[in-house]
Design brief:
Keywords: Coiled coil, Membrane, Transmembrane, Transmembrane helix. The chain has about 350 residues and is mainly alpha-helical. Helices cover about 70% and strands about 0% of the residues.
Length: about 350
């Protein structure tokens, strides 16, 4: 870069000496010559700097586009490099700065080539490196696991629904069998008791027992219908009762119990049947005072005749297997039996012991 500038200065000096014999060179001409020489030197310097910059850019591009960086490059960049290597791009962008795939190394001739780029880099991005293959395998495994879990959950739910339906069917069959057994027991106790009293004590006792038994069977039918109307699902928990203002905790508990008993028992339609026993007795005796006389104790005994069937069923279920040795049980279930059965038996015993016809017909 310095030789052209030196030659320019020598040429300017020689022209100045030649002009000294005649007329001296003008300062403008000398300045122009010197400026031409300087501009020529600067042009040569900038051209060399451009070559070095282009070489650095080519080396940087070669390193950036080597095989270990290809999978990080965007698809647009890969397509552009492939197009330049194949000559698809007709535009002349000046010095080529395309990269090579040969681990960032240039060819022995000094030019950059695409190397093995066309062999695999033009394939779809998802199948180029092992990274994408491993990720696809993981996604496939997760999808298979999710599908297996969903299938297992569906199978378990189907089995649970089938077991629930089978249990419901068996429970309904057992409940229907129990209802038929208790209904037969109530009818047998009502009819058998009325027939026995008619033969033993006459028509008055039989009529009293029969009317009471009819009211009791009607009460039993209403109770069964109420039970059938209940939902088989688990009932929701009761809402918390509001605190009673001005009452201690024990008194508030008693008030809540009385209110619940009143709402569950006294406000039912079946309660009208036991309440009608005394009015029926009084009305019957007032209308027909001379022929058949109804006795109030026998009316109540007949009303609780359906309980005798319940007592017999509880005996056959709890006591008889224990005494027979078929299975070891805990005796009579008093909660299942209820206090009303013992009340009915007590009323029967009281009437037989102290009734008006206790000495015989």
């Amino acid at each position: 870069g310095r030789a052209p500038a030196a030659r320019g200065r020598k040429l300017a000096a020689a022209s100045g000496e030649g002009a000294g014999g005649g007329e001296s060179a003008s300062p403008r001409t000398a300045a122009a010559d010197s400026s031409d020489g300087a501009s020529g030197g600067d042009g040569a310097t900038s051209e060399g700097e451009a070559r070095r910059r282009a070489a650095r850019d080519d080396a940087r591009e070669a390193l950036r586009s080597s095989s270990e960086y290809v999978w990080r490059m965007p698809s647009e960049r890969i397509e552009a490099l492939v197009g330049k290597a194949r000559g698809d791009d007709d535009e002349d962008d000046g010095p080529s700065a395309s990269a090579t795939i040969n681990e960032g190394k240039a060819d022995p001739t000094g030019s950059l080539s695409i190397g093995a780029f066309n062999s695999w880099a033009s394939m779809p991005v998802d199948t180029q490196p092992d990274f994408f293959s491993a990720r696809a395998d993981r996604e496939a495994e997760r999808a298979a696991e999710r599908a297996a879990r969903e299938a297992e959950r569906a199978e378990i739910e189907a089995a649970a629904i089938a077991a629930k339906e089978e249990l419901r069917r068996r429970s309904d069959a057992e409940y229907a069998d129990l209802k038929s057994t208790l209904d037969r027991g109530a009818l047998v106790c009502a009819g058998g008791g009325a027939a026995y009293l008619f033969l033993a004590y006459g028509p008055d006792a039989a009529a009293s027992y029969g009317v009471g038994a009819a009211l009791g069977i009607a009460y039993w039918g209403e109770l069964v219908r109420e039970v059938d109307a209940l939902d088989g699902q688990n009932s929701p928990p009761p809402e918390p009762a509001p605190a009673q203002a001005g009452l201690p905790e024990r008194a508030a508990w008693a008030v809540r119990r009385l209110r619940g008993a009143f709402q569950r028992g006294l406000l039912q339609r079946r309660i009208l049947l036991p309440a009608a026993v005394a009015p029926v007795w009084a009305l019957w005796n007032a209308v027909e005072p001379g022929e058949v006389h109804l006795g109030l104790p026998l009316l109540w005994v007949g009303f609780f005749a359906y309980k005798i069937g319940i007592v017999y069923w509880a005996y056959t279920e709890e006591v008889a297997p224990t005494w027979a040795g078929a299975e070891r049980g805990g005796g009579i279930d008093f909660k299942r039996l209820g206090y009303s059965a013992w009340i009915a038996l007590g009323v029967v015993a009281f009437y037989l012991a102290f009734g008006p016809d206790s000495q015989g017909p």
